[in-house]
Amino acid sequence: MEPGSERLLDNPPQDGISSLAFSPSSSNLLLVSSWDKTARLYDTSSNVAKGIWQNHAAVLDCTVQDDHTGFSGGLDRAVRKIYLNQPEDPGLNIGSHAGEVSCMEFSRELGALVTGGWDGNVHIWDPRSQGRAQSLPPSEKVFTLAVSGQRLVVGTSDRSVLIYDVRKLSAPDDRRESSLKHQTRCIRIAPDHSGYVLASVEGRVAVEYFDLSTEVQAQRYAFKCHRRDDLVYPVNAVAFHPTHGTFATGGCDAMVYTWDGQNKKRLAHLGPYKTSIAALSYNFDGSLMAIAASYTYEEGEKEHPPDAVYLRCPLEGEVKRKVKAGA
Fold first, then answer.
1. How many domains, the chain?
2. In the chain, is it the N or the C terminus that has fewer CB atoms within a 10 Å radius of its CB?
3. pLDDT by residue (tens digit) across 257-269?
């Protein structure tokens, strides 16, 4: 694909798209979860669906360990291991939550899967022993989590943000209240592990830092986005570019924006797409971005465009920080 070009992924899910996850070890394998009770693996280079795994209920999130192993979870409360190179294998349930599984990420630091649920629990799973390795102290409903390097950040229904060091998970290092006044929708950790971005349902994004020193905390800020005239739209998705450290947001206004958080600048706007942006993901080197245009029922039941996944080859100006004159 040429920079700036975009194409549709063939044979997308048949219901709302909940998550997109590229393999961290190749540029072209993409796992997609959906309310149609499936997790689907695509080879984005050939635009071919390589496998479809059926679940008993809607799948709310998925993640990829490597080119061979993925995971999914959702309304059936099961945590499922998927063998990506064996599409005929139905997968393996490695455990369950007491409530619906809302979010998951694979921690390379731990070599383990981290899951969060509406039961208020965060569980750590060892994919080798195929069992639960550790559980964190319960909290309110877990809406989102992110794990990268030595940091785990959990966002809950009461707007709490729990920050853990993965080397000592017995208690959070820090517990904060979201700086945004409304419900947290998505949290993602910056590639340099200096902080995280938090998005909310009221068209705002916060840029936060882990270092508690007064000097660093003075740099945190929030800004309005995904707004049109007097309408305010939920921000559903955040994705960091893995090499440039800029980030993208997707919202119910059917737009994707890219941002230079360091310099507080918007880099580009993409869209409008045909419906809400439900999920975003960059591949391992940032040469490809997956965009899920999928109605998220923010306006209830109504006729809406078919669910779709777009594959975009970003322009440099969409993802690279602008160097200030004289810098």
1. 1
2. C
3. 999 999 999 999 9
